[in-house]
Amino acid sequence: MKHKHRIGVFKFASCDGCQLSLLDLEDELVALAGAVDIAFFPEMSSNMRSGPYEIGLVEGSVTTHQDAARIHQIRKQCQNLVAIGACATAGGIQALRNWSDTQQWVNQVYAHPEYIQTLSMSTPISGHVPVDFELRGCPVNKYQLLELVSAALAGRKPNIPTYSVCVECKRRGNICIAVAEGVGCLGPATQAGCGALCPTYSRGCYGCFGPAESASSTILAELLIAQGHPSDEVVRAFRSYNACAWPFRQAAEGKGLT
Amino acid sequence: MSDATEPRKKSGTIKVDYMARVEGEASLLIKLKADRVQDVKLKIFEPPRLFEALLHGRHFTEVPDITSRICGICPVAYQMTAVHSIERALGITIDPMVRLLRRMLYAAEWIESHVLHIYMLHAPDFLGYRDFVELAKDYPKEATEALRLKKLGNRIMAILGGREIHPVSVTVGGFHKTPSKADLLPLVEELKAALDIALAKAKFLGGFEFPDFEQAYEFVALSHPSEYPLNEGRLVSNRGLNIDASQYEDRFVEQHVKHSHALHSIIRGRDSYQVGPLARFNLNYSKLPEVAQQAADICGLRVPCLNPFKSILARAVETVFALDEALRAIQAYEPPPAPKASYEVRAATGQAITEAPRGIQYNRYSFDDKGMILSARIVPPTSQNQKRIEDDLRAFVPSIIEQPMEELTRRCEQAVRNYDPCISCATHFLKVKMERE
Question: Which chain A residues are closer than 8 Å to B164 by Cβ?
Fold first, then answer.
């Protein structure tokens, strides 16, 4: 019998949405489960088998000492380790703590802060172990996730575009809301993958797929301010689901912005 | 899972270190001594993400997008509760068609979430499988049809909100963009076909074996004068509770217990309570459309139902309701004159409760005269059910104590899944662990 690639799906601090994308592949799920060996995916199955795995999909960011140790164990078991989603690739929305006093936040939320153990920073998987591929998005695009797994099975490079949301927006034939209506839009600096959803739904892109490879987030920040958007709004726009991704971080911390 | 031999009188620990088929990270620990349950702890070790704190200093218009990230399974529940809280704070009246679209969007999330839980997470327990893929091999027709229903829920969400997980169209006052009638019409035939499938599925699920187990619950759910509750209503219980959302914090208390990152909710001066499909069904049966009442008849679910294992049937009935509600909404829909209501920003505080797929969700937000958030309070359904889950296990374990340890553990996991616990929400992951002394 042909060897089937063993897949493990691992969760760190996250909303579960990226791994749920696998279960949302209603037309492909049964075929996928036949083509690979889903050896560890607790959200889907009680049948949990130990590694090694050919492909490890990691969702979520590292926010506890235990998780900081666990990711090293997982890395050792996975031939290819893929970080999926904004939490795993950029720390997620919970990384807003990185600019605050985390202990004070814990005190604010919990009656017994002493019961809570959490790190002062929320960090992406690549901050702890080498990562073979990062799939962006909050949440990821489920078809990109499928493409990633298919490419791994075929032993080829995944076809995941790195251009900006503007390219997808033009392809959809949208009128540019930033130019025509002056709406603050992060599309020019954000990686494609969502299908330019927000502009299609009459609002500015809020950057949930993180920074596009070749675009300058800092220049976009300056342009937005020049367009009349208050600087605190611009800082908040870059400081959201991908706040820790370096180009967005630079844009939010850039000259005259903070 | 058991790590010890079976003595005549059972002592020890039922232990599930990493509970599967739940959303998030939790473990279960049950200590037994001479056939008696000494302790039950549902431990939620999902790392805290501190949403209530990270919202400080964000603008209220950002809240629905941010809070949707608490949970990938029920993002619409967070978006709805947030916008209703803020709209109540500012006294914003939404267009009746916006209200209708929101019910359609919320119903679509119920369809997706309920079908996911019924077939992928819970049915394998009833039929003796480890997961949906195994189930699908023996029940290909049921599995295919379940996926078709789930896909339809997702499709409606994607039409209304761009995508099924963290949709992008909801905003304070309405939507960023509302669909045309023509966008929705193709769904009509599909919804009609789906209703037939969902009724047939109710018969299939009604044929499951249910443990003979009942508890005297206090059920808590929203109640609306004329509708099965989704976005609005007073909060009521079968023991006389009847309050507005603004009184929630006077009547409910959250306790922080050492073993869990989620807070335990109780009714002040009383005890644990149950929220979710079974609570809604028991308190709102008469508001269900005829076709959903028919589904209840088909699967044998009757009011009052005090057996938590039959929550899977309540989910099946509510799936029929949600399909019918989406259909009704599409037929009545005409695009509103404006996608959202206009409003003036001022300092205010507002609270709202809506019915997430797993039960009531409470939000409170205060913001300043610029609209910047000063304080936030979010009480998701799973933290409200958490103490009730522990109470159920305390009562349930003695009734199955004769079972071998492995079966005992399996049954306890099934009992936890009755509540479709979403631990990402409660803060994420279930382990069951039974300890022997």
Answer: 24
